[in-house]
Amino acid sequence: MFRVQRLKFKTPSWYISLSLFVIFLFIFSLFIKKSFSNRRPSQWKVKVEWVVDGDTFIIQGHQVVRLKGIDAPELGHKKGERSQYFAKQALKRLIHLIKKRYVIIKRYGLTKDRYGRYLAYVYLPDGRFVNLLMIKEGYAFYFPHHDLERKMARRFLDAQRMAMDQRRGFWARILSMDAANKRYIGNRKELRFHTLLCPLGRKIYLKHRVYFSSLYEAFYKGYAPCRVCTPWPKE
Ligand SMILES: [Zn+2]
């Protein structure tokens, strides 16, 4: 301020105007920069360090990310434990898509589960939607949850129905095994289904019970298998 005051007496007015304008620009640019840095980004570009299985990976900083709204067959993690059918293929597919590459994690729908893992919608830089892709190709199935955005649930279930009808990925075997023609009991509230012998299935309130005449029907209606009695075969 002192400098400006002094200049006022010695310099022409256009010089003062110009100086004030430059100062104004400087302050304005600081303000703009601050307001932009405060704005929360709608997405992040992050590098994938490690792929754990067909629906989970680790990014820089050791943060675990799980693909939201989908479930891939489980790998046998403990020694001697067999993997579920198609778990290794799903892992390989996800490795091929994202390992050591950059992916885009959307703020939309981003949550954390009780294990501290991010549940996220993940995209490739070319725009492909990884969660959806895994369902479309029959490497993962739709996993309903109350956290899931309705719009996404719809997209995932539509993609799954198409994958089932085209017998893509694991669906060819899953829909033709003996267990495919058995009856199942579902829980309308949780959108999980059980074998008729599962103790958890028997505990479902009568008003929440729904019966399916085949695996196709249970999956087609958007129910996911119970982890205890799952009819999913081992490798
Ligand atoms: Zn069950």
Could you characterize the architecture of this molecule?
The protein is an alpha+beta fold. It has three domains: 2-38, no CATH class; 43-164, OB fold (Dihydrolipoamide Acetyltransferase, E2P); 175-235, 3-Layer(aba) Sandwich (DNA Methylphosphotriester Repair Domain). It is 36% helix and 21% strand. The protein contains eight helices and 13 strands. It has helices at 2-10, 13-38, 87-98, 130-136, 150-165, 171-174, 199-202, 215-220; strands at 43-53, 56-59, 64-67, 70-71, 102-106, 111-112, 118-120, 122-123, 141-142, 184-187, 192-195, 209-212, 224-225. The protein has a seven-stranded mixed sheet with strand order 6-7-3-2-1-5-8. A four-stranded mixed sheet has the order 12-10-11-13. A hairpin with a 5-residue loop joins strand 6 (111-112) and strand 7. Helix 4 packs parallel to helix 5 (150-165). It is elongated. The termini are far apart. The model has no long low-confidence stretch (mean pLDDT 92). Zinc ion (ZN) binds at residues 194, 198, 200-201, 226, 228-229.
